[in-house]
Q: What sequence folds into this?
């Protein structure tokens, strides 16, 4: 099993550029989410999804869009990148039922210049 | 409001000494509780988790944590640290149905010879 796969691992953007961070999981998990990690702030939830076609905002959603057209994929879109979006981004998935933890991808380190 | 507090931003410990990392949370109901570890440039690795039952939980790498409901705490301990334990540690809480994981700001652990 690949688990949760994030691409790319590293990315440098110029201010105003757009890009999509990819997240795919092969565990048939209903729940998927995106977090950003900044020094001294832990991980903060950006957006999450409880199933295909259903998404909702987390703690820091501004500047980001998501969609969930399939169970496997949960891309995160930056429409117009800003330096404040320089961060490390983590995608996570979890099954809907059962006592289990969230499974995290390896992260995408994004720098906006 | 839900919150997770890790009071210690930075801890320095000698190799072979004991380690305790504190985590306090504010939550409306009994949450799921987790400790994750992150080595430099790496993703998140789950150390241990608490869902219910025995309040002392054992994890990987010789770590354990104790859930104290009356104190709203979930402190992480290790009797004897190894140089490889140098990393950042995150406490996280979440509802017993999937929702949004709330992370603490993290504790950076430095291990000295």
A:
């Amino acid at each position: 099993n690949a688990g949760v796969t994030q691409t790319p691992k590293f990315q440098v953007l110029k201010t105003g550029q757009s890009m999509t961070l990819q997240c795919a999981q092969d565990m048939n998990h209903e729940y998927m989410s995106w977090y950003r990690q900044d020094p001294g702030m832990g991980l903060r939830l950006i957006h999450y999804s409880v199933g295909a076609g259903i998404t909702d905002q987390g703690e820091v959603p501004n500047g980001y869009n998501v969609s969930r057209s399939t169970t496997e994929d949960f891309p995160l879109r930056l429409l117009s990148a800003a330096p404040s979006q320089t961060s490390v981004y983590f995608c996570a998935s979890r099954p809907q039922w059962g006592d289990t933890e969230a499974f995290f991808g390896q992260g995408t380190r994004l720098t906006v210049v | 409001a839900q919150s997770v507090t890790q009071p210690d931003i930075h801890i320095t410990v000698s190799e072979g000494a004991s380690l305790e990392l504190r985590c306090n949370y504010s939550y409306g109901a009994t949450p799921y509780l987790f400790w994750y570890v992150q080595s430099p440039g790496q993703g998140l690795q789950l150390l241990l988790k608490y869902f219910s039952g025995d309040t002392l939980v054992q994890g990987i790498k010789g770590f354990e944590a104790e859930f104290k409901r009356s104190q709203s705490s979930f402190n992480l301990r290790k009797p004897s640290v190894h140089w490889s334990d140098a990393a950042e540690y995150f406490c996280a809480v979440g509802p017993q149905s999937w929702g949004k994981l709330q992370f603490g700001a993290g504790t950076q652990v430095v291990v000295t010879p």
Summary: The mean pLDDT of chain B is 92. Residues 36 and 46 of chain B are 4 Å apart (CA to CA).
